[in-house]
UniProtKB/TrEMBL annotation:
Organism: Xylaria hypoxylon
Protein name, as recorded: SET domain-containing protein
InterPro entries xrefs: Class_V-like_SAM-MTase, SET_dom, SET_dom_sf
Species lineage: Eukaryota, Fungi, Dikarya, Ascomycota, Pezizomycotina
PROSITE patterns: SET (PS50280)
Extent of Polar residues compositional bias: 114-126, 135-152
Residue stretches making up the SET domain: 513-619
Chain residue ranges for the region called Disordered: 114-152
A family per Pfam: SET
Amino acid sequence: MLSEEQITALRQKVASVIADELTRANIDWASFDQLAEPSVCIKAEFQDRSVDDSSVEQRPLPGLTISKVIDLTKVTTPRSSASPALGGNSIGVAENQNVEPTSGTIVPLSRNHTPIASHDAPNQVSGDKGKHSMVNENSNTSDGEDNGNNSRMAISGLRPSRGGIPVVEDNTQRQMQVVNENFPKRRKAEAVGYTMKPSSLDKLVIGIWEQLHSGVSVDPVHILGEFMTPPLLRDAISPSQDIAGLSLSSSGPSSASPPDRHFNETTVLCRKVTQASRTCRSIEVIVQARWVEHFDAYVEHLKANDPKISVTRHRKTVSAESSSNFGWSEKELRNKMAIWRGYKEIKDAGGWASLVFAGMGIYRFCKYRIGFDNESMQRLRNLRPALEVAADTMNQNWRRLLSIVGEPPERMYSGHPHDWVICLDGSPPIQLRKTYLQWDPHFEYKHIDESVIDQAAWGYDDPRWKPPSSEALTRISSLFVCQDCLNEQSDEPKLNCCYCFPSLFGCATFTPPPVQVFRTPNGRNNGLMALCAFERGAAVGEFIGVITKGLQDVDVMENATGSAKYQIWQGRQGNFTRFVNHSCNSNSQYQQFTWLDTQRIVLVSKGIGAGSEITVDYSDKYWKGLDKKCLCGEKSSHRKGDYY
Ligand SMILES: C[S@@+](CC[C@H](N)C(=O)[O-])C[C@H]1O[C@@H](n2cnc3c(N)ncnc32)[C@H](O)[C@@H]1O
């Protein structure tokens, strides 16, 4: 019995031999042009060569023969290289269907899957009846459409999915669809929470969200002790050193550091200085805001002690004393104080987090004071809990900065950012689980970044596995080729060349998506809000959950590769896409995308404004026969007749 590693090595060997043979063969590639529908026939037989008798024909081992005709039409016919993102004809679903390759593929694949603990298995969770289900019926869901290409065991590190496709009736309600068409024209989505038109306060607030979600760390540790180490730039490039780092001085090349070390050390130093500077900037504004408070308190104190003198007079006295301490003219101090007072007002409304995470725009905002009206400040007040949840859960040490101004350093909100549900009226955030207890007293939700395979349903197989496209066959050096842009895909950022959804796949930095779970005001329980704008075509996130099958009457996304139907269940674990509500005029849609030969479902923006609720169209099928009314409120709803 061969081990899994041996089988993988065997596959790789076979693949590379075929590739070598193709290179060696004197193929007139130019004449491919003349073939209307080119195909290649690959035959491989595993034989026992130990059979001595040359007169006996070597027989192939039963069951281990590959014989496949591979359609190359798509390889030789130029395709659009546009991203699967919006705006082109290259929307993933349709493209992916057409390039469904055969089992004659030679790309080895081995992916590890995290099995879910049996107690997490949705099959074993009862009491979830009456939840919703979503379906993608745009892929090759029919077994018959597979053209008999199920025999993929010979070429993939994954074992083929088992049979036993669950019986899920076609007319099951609550099934959502992945869109398989160009985007419809749509009008601008209306913001439900904080309308952030790009001006004054809106810009400031968007800047705060961007800072919060950029992964920036404001921690006093960045300025305390970081620079106590020996000077990092002691080997700075001097005029006597050439740019390649080779010393031209008499001490010779041995004393010089190589350029890569210079570069790496400078990168570290630069990062530290940038972090420290960012942290100092935050400290600066909070201290200045606090200074204004102390200034006002001092004036009040003087007034209380000497009520006969006017407040203006007392203020002048304190200003004079301060300008002398700062070493500025009184006018200079007045100008600066006006800006610092702005910081204080922002802090009073939006809390300390709004100051600490404000971008550079806060200076301009406070200098010109455009938008410092009551309405704007009320909006900031409503935002405060949301900002604090995001700051506490994504930047655990930010409150330590506050001890400089005598505020408690303990965070108020712990856990995952989406463990908290924000209220639009500024009332305190609610724990996520509490918003579901009325339906399920034991509700818990585990936030995960990668889908997990329900082992009880699929063993160690991933039913989302898709055989690589025929393009992949022509580019043997690339292990994984994007079926949309045809570039090489890799989890290793240095190797990856596919930028279809760079915020999700193949790029170095993954920052938390700027979204927050919020309480809908009109009976839809929770929803998902975009804190920053998502450009049309940008990925909001991947639909993550438990890959399972056979669930009925619970919320699932249904999808299929050529040979396997599967469901993604978000009832107990998943990501924020679980909170996306339906709209008949949605501002996002689900699209299929294949990453490393594994099918994914990506929530893609159709143009989402900062502060808007993120919505998708669940499809008619989802609502069919469902005892619920659509509350999206869209007048233009094609379900208007049904639900209003
Ligand atoms: C995937 S969940 C979305 C998140 C959900 N609102 C929550 O709080 O968990 C789908 C469910 O949300 C509710 N929902 C979503 N969109 C809705 C809409 N337009 N009108 C009414 N209910 C909606 C329905 O109960 C639906 O079954």
